[in-house]
Amino acid sequence: MPCKLFEFSSRDQWAQLAGMLKQRNTENPKIETAVKEILQQVQNRGDEALLEYSRKFDCPDFALSRLRVDRAEPAAAAAAISPADRALIEEAAANIRAFHAAQKERSWFNTEKNGSMTGQLVRPVSAAGLYIPGGQGGSTPLISTLMMTAIPALEAGVKRVVMVSPPGTDGSLNQYLLATAHILGISEVYAVGSAWAVAALAFGTESIAPVEVIAGPGNIYVTCAKRLVSGVVGIDMLAGPSEILIIADGSAPAGLIAADMLSQAEHDPMASAVCISSCDRLLKEIASELEARLADLPRAEIARASLKDWGALVRVADMQEAVELSNLIAPEHLELVVAEPWNLLGLVQNAGAVFMGANTPEAMGDYFAGPNHVLPTMGTARFSSSLSVHTFCKRINVIHSSAQYAAESAPKIARLARLEGLEAHARAAELRR
Questions:
Q1: Which is the CATH superfamily of the domain at 4-24+240-382?
Q2: Would you call 332 a catalytic residue per the annotation?
Q3: What is the C-alpha to C-alpha distance for residues 432 and 404, in angstroms, rounded to an integer?
Q4: Which of 182, 267, 333, 373 is catalytic?
Q5: pLDDT at 360
Q6: pLDDT tens digits for 95-131?
Q7: Which of 84, 270, 330, 347 could share a disulfide with 323, CB 3.0–4.6 Å?
Q8: How high is the mean pLDDT of the chain?
Q9: Cα torsion for 273, 276, 282, 287, to the nearest 10°?
């Protein structure tokens, strides 16, 4: 059995699975101490600290001249990739842009008969920093994450969009990341990664001006750094290891479910992949399919560790129980691989994104369909949402009052102020009478 098997006959037993998955959220005081030191060093020493950390962890002979990627490099990279790959990136970007364009909010105002007017101004932040993971040595350049973070910022109207990504051992960035940056129109690109890149975006250095919002996923050091600088800048969310939860009935193809579970398990040994079903036969078939597909998977070692520690096949009484258990877990990715997924969608309360039916793999959302793939993890889908245009916008309240309305309201405002013991507030209102 490649992963744990749970057979639940009572809702009281659900805490076993939820508790297992929550163990991935263990904080590490040593990492926080290390990240605090990194933030302090960058805040105090600026570029010098970036150079030191980049040489130690990424590129031994890194030079500050490589920090800001030359403006010509993204254009050259876009010209160097194949026309077919460029067309594919452009098509995916168009899908993502269309979805996020529909999210844009407008400023609004309401005028009342009493002479007051209230409303909201919707304004983008002036600068956004995008953290784009590249993996060790640039082994996993996440061009999809660049599109998923940059396009909402651009659709929001952010004027300055900055990309940071860790350099490879030769000090360069992956040509597909650079090509995608060019296609999207991002010209400010820095070869810098990990917690020191987050610090540079938050506090600024001699070479990198600070931003107002930092978005994009990263490893535990990046996530810790984002948490520590939130409040100095805005952040999108604190993303944890990737997750998939699949609800499947007897009609579901076991091979497809196993493939989708592995698509998340290959991310990280801490990733979780769970399938919930009421069909014993299906769960047994999925276990066999997982073993068979691990045999020739390039990242099999990572996927096997993920499944062993955090994967699960779960039997419940029926599909309603399956959705209730899913709502308790609040997964990042929820697949409804059932004959009639629309019948279950109305029961879903907590999920980062929902994928409907056997023909909608999670990978479609990762790359191509349009909705954002930067999603809440570790149960935070109970109260938070995906990265969106709204991540990069502010809503500014507006109030206007006529002289008559101010005078009529003054006694009421003053009374409420005095109930709170704030006499200056009361007197300020009464001066309008």
A1: Nitrogenase molybdenum iron protein domain (3.40.50.1980)
A2: yes
A3: 9
A4: 333
A5: 97
A6: 999 999 999 999 999 998 888 999 999 999 999 999 9
A7: 347
A8: 96
A9: 30
Burial class (CB in 10 A: 0-12, 13-18, 19+), 54: buried
Which CATH number applies to 46-106+123-235: 3.30.1360.70, 3.40.50.1980, 3.40.50.970, 1.10.1520.10? 3.40.50.1980
> Which residues, listed in sequence order, are joined to residue 191 by a DSSP beta bridge?
165
Domain ranges of the chain: 4-24+240-382, 46-106+123-235, 402-430
Give me the catalytic one of 212, 332, 335, 362. 332
pLDDT at 138: 64
Phi-psi region of 401 (alpha: psi -120 to 50; beta: other; left: phi over 0): beta
The interaxial angle of helices 29-45 and 194-203, nearest 10 deg, is 50
Chain centroid, CA 369 distance in Å: 16
Determine phi and psi for 431, rounding to 5 degrees: -65, -15
CB 122 within 8 A of CB 395: yes
Rounded mean pLDDT, 406-429: 97
Do 4-24+240-382 and 46-106+123-235 agree at the fold level?
Answer: yes
Q: Given this model, what pLDDT does residue 75 score?
A: 97
* Inter-axis angle of helices 300-310 and 254-265, nearest 10: 100
pLDDT in tens, 14-68: 999 999 998 987 678 999 999 999 999 999 999 999 999 999 999 999 999 999 9
Q: Number of C-alpha atoms within 13 angstroms, CB side, residue 395?
A: 12
Q: What is the pTM of this model?
A: 0.93
Residue 25's pLDDT is what?
77
